[in-house]
Amino acid sequence: MLGGKASRLAWFLLVAVVFDLGITAVHAESSKASRRTRERGSSKRRFDDLESAESSYGSFFGYPNSVFNEYSLFIPNSNPPALCRAYPNGQRTNCGDAFNNQCRTNRYRTFDGSCNNLNNPMWGAANTRYGRLLLPKYGDGIQAPTRSVTGSELPLSRLVSFTLFPSVTVKDNRLTLAAMQWGQFITHDMAMIDGSTQSKKHVTQCCTDDGCLLRRDLSDPKCYPIVIPYNDPVYRKSTIECLEFVRSVTDLDRGCNSRYKSAAEQLTVVTHYLDLSLVYGSNQQVANNLRLGIAGRMRVDVRSNREWPPTPANKSALCDVESSSDVCYDTGDVRANQNPQLTVLHILLLREHNRIAGKLARLNPHWSDETIYQETRRIVIAEHQHISYYEWLPLFLGSKQTRESKILYDTNDYVNDYNPRVDPSVLNEHSTAAFRYFHSLIAGFLKLIGEQRGSVSPPLRLSDHFNRPAVIEQDGNMDHLTRGLSYQPEMASDQYFDEEITIYLFRNGRRLGSDLRATDIQRNRDHGLASYNDYREYCHLPRANNWNDFKDYISEENIQKLASLYAHPDDVDLTVGGSLERDVPGTLVGPTFLCILLEQFYRTRVGDRFWYENSNQDTAFTKEQLNEIRKASISRLFCDNGDNIELMQPKGFELVSDRNPLYKCQNLPSVDLSFWKDYAQETRSNEDHQTHYVYYKKK
């Protein structure tokens, strides 16, 4: 470490000149331990919509050519990274390239998503690659993080974050915090990057405990730390010079076979489908461990006469705990304890499963535990899909746009638009950039709301409760937080972010934490996404040849800031440019992100053989059952599964108003489960649970 700020800056400038690096040049999450292993050409060229973009060969870990800032020495990369075979536990994985089992026609989804598509059994399965709209633009063409078109480094992620995405509090005037939180629930259901997390202390450490950069020869090859610029308005007042960041695991790291391309592709450890994998798990082992094995119910702990998710065997792997008595929850997803409102949704969906299972068990006493569990799972997944698409999606992507894109239909009948040629895989552009735009909706303080919709105590500071869910069970907070979801406004959809997530993210008792916006930008580069300009062109906007060409959807002030940060319009990160666009009327996003999101949610629906509105197979609901599923709502979910909630507005994603007043819960529409009464004289089942039932309309 160099002594004296002036001398350090002088040394930094000298190094920059000698190596022709540029002042802003720099190239800089990890696996959680858990109770058990969860298995889970041209930039304009578009991958075929109907094919997987599959690739890989031997493991090749990239590392930044240099790691430096004003506080650290420049370390040239004199030795290129070596090829290695680093498969987990010595096992080679195929990343979805091959399916060695036989798909059988089954009434129920598999837990890992395989065999949804009978022609391509691994499409949408856990532990497979993300899809892409455009070919990646890695710095080395294979897997190194994105670089400028000039060949130099892109501006520091943290510098871009505090320059373009300042901490300003602007509340939305229409939508509730539940709308934001349901969005996170959707993204956790559809994607989780393999090998990285920032919600818990890193197993792979890229910075020292006091925030200094680790020497390169002591750090993991997957390290890509977020380097703090010398003029940082927050971290310059501390000793912190880097924030943890670990590169995502790719097919190259897993040693998968290369078939179509040599460039790396990231993997997701959960299923790509909207199938509540975060509740039920993304493999059979996790699913089995969460089941009670009696009457179709899932395991719970009972405290204060209320059901809570079970306690994990290793709390410290999932939660920030100080003693063995601290509350921590085990669910189908390791991220469930991340923040209180996310955890509340997990609890509500778990209770919804057991509520419905209890009713089906009484309705059909001849059904086995397996049948009750699977039929309940079908219903709860269908409710989730309906709420997500027909209640949530129009608020974010527009009622007009979602219908024109054939994502939503105005019908009381079946839709039947399943297409086995559509790959439902989650797009890298969706998961890494477009859907992360809604991080701006996160509120830094969570209100605790009573039945009459007044605050019952001071709000909870978000950064005090990351991975600390105990507060939910205290002083009636389960209901207070649930009402808060339906009453507190979310933050506005804009370029402003709450400082609880740009300064104090996952601080876990420390004075400062990490920066979610800088993390989003860093992840964009880690995944080698093509530039914002490339996606403008893909989405039928004119390509910008100079900075002024961005004026169609980006303000002049933001264009000036972009020009001060980036060397060329083709350098602007998709995460950055898309977040600065003015919203398309009727939506919460600009045209580029809207284009990507509509494409994703079309694929997610049309590529799912088990989608709840399909009728052309044994997996279908009867028309009467389907009409009942369509009564499901976020408000009814709150009413049925809170501890003692009595009042709720019909549209829980929208603020209480004269047009959306509070009603007694019993007056809100609800799913009539009597349509699931099985009148068949006998049932036949086998070990694969391929029972065929005949349901009859309620007499």
UniProtKB/TrEMBL annotation:
It comes from the Eukaryota. GO terms for molecular function: heme binding; metal ion binding; peroxidase activity. One of its GO terms (biological process) is response to oxidative stress. Pfam families: An_peroxidase. Keywords: Heme, Iron, Metal-binding, Oxidoreductase, Peroxidase, Signal. Heme b binds at H439. SUPFAM superfamilies: Heme-dependent peroxidases. Residues 1-28 form the signal peptide. The keyword Transit peptide does not apply. This is Peroxidase. It comes from Odynerus spinipes.
